[in-house]
Structures are given as C-alpha cells and as structure tokens.
Amino acid sequence: MSEMQKLVKVFIMGEAYEVPEGSTIIMAMEYAGFQMKRGVGCREGFCGACATVYREKGDYKLKGGLACQTVVSDGMMLAQIPFVPAEKPVYDISELTPDVDTIKILFPTVFRCVACNTCTKACPQEIKVMDYVQALKRGDIAKAADLSFDCIRCGLCALRCPAEIVQYNAATLAQRLYGRYLNKKSPELDERIDEIEEGKYENDLEELIKMPREEITRRYYSREIKLK
Amino acid sequence: MELSYYPGCTLKANAKNFETSALAILQHLDVTVKELEDWYCCGVCFSQTQDNLMQQIAPVRTLVKAKESNRRQLLALCTMCFNTLKRAIEFIKNDKEKRDTIHQFMDREDTKFYGDEVEVIDILTLIRQIGLDKLKAAIVKKAVDLKVASYYGCMLLRPQEIAIDSPDDPVIMEEIITHAGCENVYFPFRTECCGSYQIVSEPEIVRERARKIVGSAVKNGADLMVMLCPLCYYNLDEVQRDIQEEDATFQPLPVLYFTQLLALLMGLKPDLQDFRLHAIDPRPVLKRKGLL
Ligand code: SF4
Ligand code: SF4
C-alpha cells in the first residue's frame, strides 16, 4: 500500500481498525492482522465461503455480502459468518419425483414461508430467493431451479429467515430434480463426451499444462461464453 | 375484456382440472386473462392474528404485483385464495396504522398498496359481468336433462364484507346453471361448511359433513355436484371413497369443478380435462347425458 493511501475506520467484530480505502472486506481483515482460516475461499465470488454481515454508517439495514466482493466504507461494522448450521436431508435422487410432494417430504419447512422477502434482501448474489421458495411451494421445480441458478450456498438467507427454511439446500434439490427429470437432453453433450473419449483434446490440454499462469489467467478472463 | 389472473398454488398442483377448464371457457368467451408474472402463495387462510403482521404480508405482496400489472381486476379462481386476497384488501384499506407498518417493512418494493387499486374477482361474478346471454349463446350441448347441485361452501359467502352473494340464500351459481341449460337442484346443505381443514386432524368430522352434504343432494335428485373450492372438492370427492368403504349403502355422487361442467356444455375438447383425477368417476353420468 502506498503511503498516500487513504485509510477508513471499520469495526470488525466490534473493534475499530484503520484499513485502506477501497479494500474488500477480506483485504481489510488481513490488513488488520486477522489470519483467515475459515470464512475465506476462492476470493473470486464463486465459492460462498466468506459470508459476512455488515451495517454501513447511517443505514439501518443489516446487509449480507461476500467478504471478497464487498468494499469497505468508513464506519462500517461487520462480522463474518464462517459456518451456518443447516439441516440437510439425505435422499436418493433416483427415487424422487419432480413435484410438490417431494418438497413436502424433504423440505416441509418451505411451507412455512410467509413471503417476508428477508432472504432476497440478504442474498449477496441478488437472487430472488423468496420467489424460488414460493415456486417450490407450488411444485414449480423448473422455475425454482432457474431462479436459484447463481446460488453459491453462502447461507445468509437461511440465517435471516423467520421461518427457519434452509433455502439453498432446497434449491440444490430443485436443481438436481431439474437436471435429472425435467431438463431436455442436449445432443451436444453426448457429442462432447464422445470427443473427449476419443482423446480429441489431449493436445490442447498439454498446451494448457505447459502454459504460464499469466497466460492462463489472460485467456480465462477473455474467454467467450457461448450460450445456445 | 382483459384481466390479471392469480392461480394460487393448489391450481398448479392438485386442482389442474379447475385451471384448464376455467381458462378454456374464458378464452371461449373472449376474455383475456394474463397470469401475473410473479405471484406468491396467499397464505391459504386469512390470518386471524391481526397483530402478527408477518402473517398478513403474503397476500399483500401479490396485490402489489397485481397493481403493478396495471390491470384493475384480478381473477382468483380458487375460492380460498379469493377469500384471503379479498380480506387482505379490507385489512389494508381499513387499518391505516398497520398498513403504514407494512409499507415500512416492505421497503424494497417501489409500489405501495392501499386497497382500492385492485379488485379481486371470482369467476361467478366475472361470468355475470361477461353476460349471461353471452354465456347462453356459447352453450352447444342443449337439452341435456342434467340435474345439477351447486355447492357454495363458505369461502365465497363468508364473512359478509366479502360475500359475492347473499350468505344465506345465494343465487348466482343457480342463475348461471339455468342459463347454461341445466336444471338446478336445491338442497339445504349447499352453503354449509364441508369441514375444511378438519380433514387433517379430525377427518371424522369431514366424513360426517360429506355424508350430509352429498346425501342431501342425492336425495333431491342431483346427477352431479359442482363447486369452486379445491378443499371442498377434496372433502366432498375423495372423502366419498372413505365413506363408501365403511358403508356399502352409501350412494356416491360425482363432483366437478363448476368450470368443468361449463366447458363440457360449451363443447370444448373433453380431453383438456383429466377425469382420472376424480375419486368418484363422473364419466358414466356425463356419457349418459351426452356430454362425453
Ligand atoms: S440464495 Fe442464500 S445461500 Fe444462495 S447465494 Fe443467496 S443468500 Fe447465499
Ligand atoms: S426469509 Fe424465509 S419466510 Fe421470508 S420470504 Fe424468505 S423463505 Fe420466506
């Protein structure tokens, strides 16, 4: 950090620290001397390990965010939630049906939802969490799977829910049911598997293995995602 | 004519015949219904714990979406949903203090609901608005000689503030049945409660109610019974099976959603309905009367 870097004051679990302006919460915590063992993961906003709750100065809202993606602000109060105690039913997907009866059996708490929308407000991924819970309530598995697609299982929704629903585990079930029973078969996938089995990508893979890290990073970020 | 439509969870899960037949007859009568893009479970029962505002929010959320749709009327087919949404409107309209609290709580929503912006409508009133003559003109199966017992149940008639007709002596179903060319069966239990949620904890009560309600319709000569509530439907159709098991002399009566019968009378494709979903098979009587 350059000497000219402006510092802001944040309260990490109640204690004040001066940290560089513009840092993410993770960077700020490390700057303040915390050694992160839990509550940190990919640092890219994908893994959902760094759920954090915070309040910004002058705002009554208790917000949820990912520590690796959320930038600190002066006067911010925060605490990390490295683990969420959550119920997780065990099931054999091949024995289930993609309908409301399955939800009733495995996630009866879903039917306690009062549509308060607290989960949606808490979600750092801006997912319409309440809407996917509501879709599950009426057995619309496809809609629930679609709406919850970007869920990273950070657990913040479940922590705030007054009905004690574990939304993200229910979403996982919806996505599995969708993938197994409702999704249309893609012929491209079979083609691709055949190509891989024939060893079509061996040379490309070799090339990647030898490639310097910077080049891989460059290519990763400049890749195009083709959606059909 | 164009209006918003709120299906509710049951019509998407267990009462599919109700939804498909209702939407088909409305289309046939040139009414455009647009399902709300986002809607939420209404909570099923209007919460009597009026101080617990968390329990009042669910129906309000759907009413907000209906307001945002910019269509004044919101059709609720399921009578439980109808009842809950209507009462939620009354609640929001009449209790300013609680309305303010709810508005403050729903601080993410740009639209605030005050109660007058949306009119929740049931399908019977809607048919009246479309016009009974228009309905009559759409009927193709004439002179079917069918005796119909119309069962109202509670949700369309109680409490008084939201009743679509006289709670003691309603006529709207019979009026429509007459215009559809069938004969009405008046039976004393047509506005009595079916036992409702007692089916979960005290099924014996519901069996008793079903026996009385169905028995009285049969005694008065009904060929079948029609209704508009998925819970009444369950209690009066499915439960007849249990009654039959304990009492071999019990005379069953086929039960249909009101709109299923209208769709058949209008000559709409019978295969839009799934008659396998009925506990008491209505097909024999429908065939006998030339409706299938
Ligand atoms: S839905 Fe819940 S678990 Fe998933 S990302 Fe949003 S808050 Fe996290
Ligand atoms: S926080 Fe819980 S009760 Fe509230 S809308 Fe979300 S799932 Fe429903």
Structure, explained:
- The complex is a heterodimer of chains A (228) and B (292).
- Chain A has 228 residues and is of the alpha+beta class.
- Chain A has 2 domains: 7-80, Beta-grasp domain (Ubiquitin-like (UB roll), Roll), CATH 3.10.20; 93-182, Fumarate Reductase Iron-sulfur Protein, Chain B, domain 2 (Orthogonal Bundle), CATH 1.10.1060.
- Chain A has helices at residues 25-31, 100-106, 118-122, 129-137, 141-147, 156-160, 167-182, 187-197, 202-210, 213-221, and strands spanning 7-12, 15-20, 51-55, 63-66, 77-80.
- In chain A, a hairpin with a 2-residue loop joins β1 (7-12) and β2 (15-20).
- In chain A, α4 (129-137) packs antiparallel against α5 and α5 packs across α7 (167-182).
- The model of chain A has no long low-confidence stretch (mean pLDDT 94).
- With 292 residues, chain B is an alpha/beta fold.
- Chain B has 2 domains: 2-123, Up-down Bundle (Glutathione S-transferase Yfyf (Class Pi), Chain A, domain 2), CATH 1.20.1050; 140-288, 3-Layer(aba) Sandwich (Rossmann fold).
- Chain B has a 4-stranded parallel β-sheet with strand order 2-1-3-4.
- In chain B, α3 (57-68) crosses α4 and α10 (203-219) packs across α11 (230-246).
- The longest helix of chain B is centred in the C-terminal third of the chain and has 17 residues, at 203-219.
- The A-B interface holds A 99-100, 113-117, 120-121, 130-131, 134, 137-140, 162 and B 8-9, 12-13, 38-41, 43, 54-55, 57-58, 61, 105-106, 108.
- Bound molecules: iron/sulfur cluster (2 copies).
- One iron/sulfur cluster is lined by residues 113-119, 129-130, 133, 160-163, 165, 167 of chain A.
Biggest β-sheet description of chain B: 4 strands, parallel
- Determine the CATH topology of the largest domain in chain B: Rossmann fold
The ordered string of helix (H) and strand (E) elements of chain B is EHHEHEHHEHHEHEHHEHEHH
Major sheet attributes of chain A? 5 strands, mixed
* Rounded Rg of chain A: 21 Å
How far is the first residue's CA from the last residue's CA of chain A? 44 Å
**Low-confidence runs of at least 5 consecutive residues of chain B:** none
Number of separate strands of chain B: 8
Gross morphology of chain B is globular
Supply the CATH class of the largest domain in chain A: Mainly Alpha
Mean pLDDT of chain A: 94
